[in-house]
Amino acid sequence: MNTATKLSGFALGLVAVFGAAYGVGHLAGPVTPAAETRHDTTEPGHGEGGHPPAATGHLPGGLLVSDRGYTLQPVAAPTGQFAFRITGPDGRPVTRYDVAHDKRMHLIVARRDLSGFRHVHPELGADGTWRVASPLTGPGVWRAFADFTPTGGEPLTLGVDVTVPGALAERPLPAPATSTTVDGFTVTLTGAPQPGRTSQLTLTVSRDGRPVTDLQPYLGAYGHLVALRQGDLAYLHVHPEGAPGDGRTPAGPAVTFSAEVPSAGTYRLFLDFRHGDAVHTAEFTVVAGDQAAPASDAPATTTAPTPDAGHGVPGHGHN
Ligand SMILES: [Cu+2]
Question: How far apart are CA 319 and CA 304, in angstroms?
Fold first, then answer.
């Protein structure tokens, strides 16, 4: 048993590394085949394959550490603190940001195995350094996403890997499900993401079998949904339809999002919602598009019913 667990962890590690390597290769442009290197004046960036260098805007967020002149740089920080800065096109730390969803900076972190999700809001120092009590809650390779809008620029999400040393215990991704529990709440998901087109995802919150109708606004909405793609952690942040106080958006139990995932594959959804002056995060594994994601066939064999999983119907459904 123990050996099997270790092996599956190892296999997942390989998948993650392969995914990361693939992502880097894709972002750097296609590798030029040897037969095409006959030109004496090979210009860097003159890639073939129809991906012009300036087309990074079509990529999902969070895959790049540097985009449109802005770069995410972790900086040394005291134990227990996480610090970073964003440098701008002039190479200097950016100190002016627009407020988006109540904050000038949203820092989202998750381990490469998609465990340990946190969403926090650092404080900006006069020198352009952002600092926050470290959300990196244990050993592992973490992806840190900075989601911000530099004043005068467009919204950006930059991502960087940060390693926290220690004994690494890779966690397998939980199987796809349409219901989960967190902090005594049950959250159910209806709708399934479809690659390349907008899908409605509705998350419904209940507690002790009763619908929760007194959700509290959190960052200007009744919910925030982040989706991370397994393999490269492509980042998607969606806000719900309607806003608190607009006269038509109820404070639960349902919060509806319009989301478009960039490809078929397995995603982990993280729903932040606020109730009782505390923020709760409900997590779901979903499969978008064709059920061909290799990493998802391992959990499919574990069909043991769990008492709190509600309808344990996988989120993907060929009828
Ligand atoms: Cu935030």
Answer: 22
Ligand 1 midpoint to CA 56 (Å) = 24
**Residue 17: its H or E element:** helix 2-27
In the reported structure, the alpha carbon of residue 173 is separated from the centroid of ligand 1 by a whole-number distance in angstroms of 24
CA–centroid distance, 281 to ligand 1, in Å, is 13
Tell me the C-alpha distance between 66 and 4, whole Å. Answer: 39
What pLDDT score was predicted for residue 45?
Answer: 37
pLDDT for residue 312 is more than 50: no
CA distance 158 to 155: 10
Q: What is the pTM of this model?
A: 0.74
Q: How far is the CA of 9 from the centre of ligand 1 (A)?
A: 31
d(CA 224, ligand 1 centre) in Å: 9
- Ligand 1 centroid – CA 110 distance (Å): 14
How far apart are the CA of 273 and the centre of ligand 1, in A? Answer: 12
Mean pLDDT confidence for 312-319 = 36
Question: What is the distance in A from the centroid of ligand 1 to the CA of 147?
Answer: 8
**Interstrand relation of 118-120 and 179-182 (parallel, antiparallel or unpaired):** unpaired
What's the CA gap between 247 and 265, in Å, rounded? 37
Burial of 302 per CB tally in 10 Å (0-12, 13-18, 19+):
exposed
Flag the least confident range among 9-18, 95-104, 242-251.
9-18
297 CB-side CA count, 13 A: 7
Which residue spans within the chain are E strands per DSSP? 66-67, 70-75, 81-87, 97-98, 106-111, 118-120, 123-124, 129-133, 140-150, 156-164, 179-182, 185-190, 199-207, 210-211, 224-229, 235-238, 254-259, 265-275, 278-288
Ligand 1 centroid to residue 238 C-alpha, Å: 12
Contact 239, 221 (CB under 8 A): yes
